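notes to self, project folder thing:

trying the whole complex as one job this time. last attempt i did each chain seperately and stitching them together was a nightmare. four parts in total, labels are on each line so i dont mix them up again. if this works i'll redo the older ones the same way
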Amino acid sequence: MGVTRSDLFTEKQNEFSKIAKVFGHPARLAILDYLLKSQTCICGDLVEELGLAQATISQHLKELKNAEIIKGNIEGTSVCYCINEEKWYELKLVFNELFDRYPSSNDCC
Amino acid sequence: MGVTRSDLFTEKQNEFSKIAKVFGHPARLAILDYLLKSQTCICGDLVEELGLAQATISQHLKELKNAEIIKGNIEGTSVCYCINEEKWYELKLVFNELFDRYPSSNDCC
DNA sequence: CCTATTCATCGTAATATTGCAATATATAAT
DNA sequence: ATTATATATTGCAATATTACGATGAATAGG
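result (full assembly):
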């Protein structure tokens, strides 16, 4: 009980849901917003910017990195994060693929 | 502890994450896949189709309905679900709006 | 070597999500 | 009215997520 039954669904459904879940937290969106906006790629400024504890930010960054949505680069004692452009374009395609499968117009709703 | 700090984020970030979260479960994607594919709008066939318990399907349908991604129509003893076309197009726009904010090319990653 | 800085990780508490059996509700058919 | 069918809701148990303090690891600068 309580465990997502991944075995019941397609690879695609499982993969897509995993990505969508990463976008499913406002802190991670805030991080992406910041990275999209900032010229330079920002590291720990996110901590003051967002108002969450450093450990929490680090955790969210990790999830974004696991999903390959962002990349991190060590620069001395700090880490420089930025959006993974290739993945970003890929995600755009993947989401469009979903939303372009328009619902068949029907008469019952 | 453990509560998402919605107060720290923008309305937009909170709203978007809420929608993304709905797409963040494979069962809900499977339901959408089925509704997108089926000519008629399907009701409880989802239960046999997906292999989850009826109560579980019902719960996922509720979340999709709360997010206004699908609509339900009572037809006798059964309920006919289908995708909310207007919302669907709106979601397409909202997601594109995000992905069209291309990352500024940078030199550190 | 010592210290400060930056970030990651660990441990843990609070809360949310998932899944299901059991039960409730509502309509249809007899 | 009674029964059958379809869906929703309730009440849990299992698991996942979120947040944070404390601690660890790595580097820069003295």
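what i see at first glance: Residues 1-4, 25, 27, 52-56, 59-60, 74, 76-78 of chain A lie near DNA strand D (CB under 10 Å from a C1').
need to look closer tmrw
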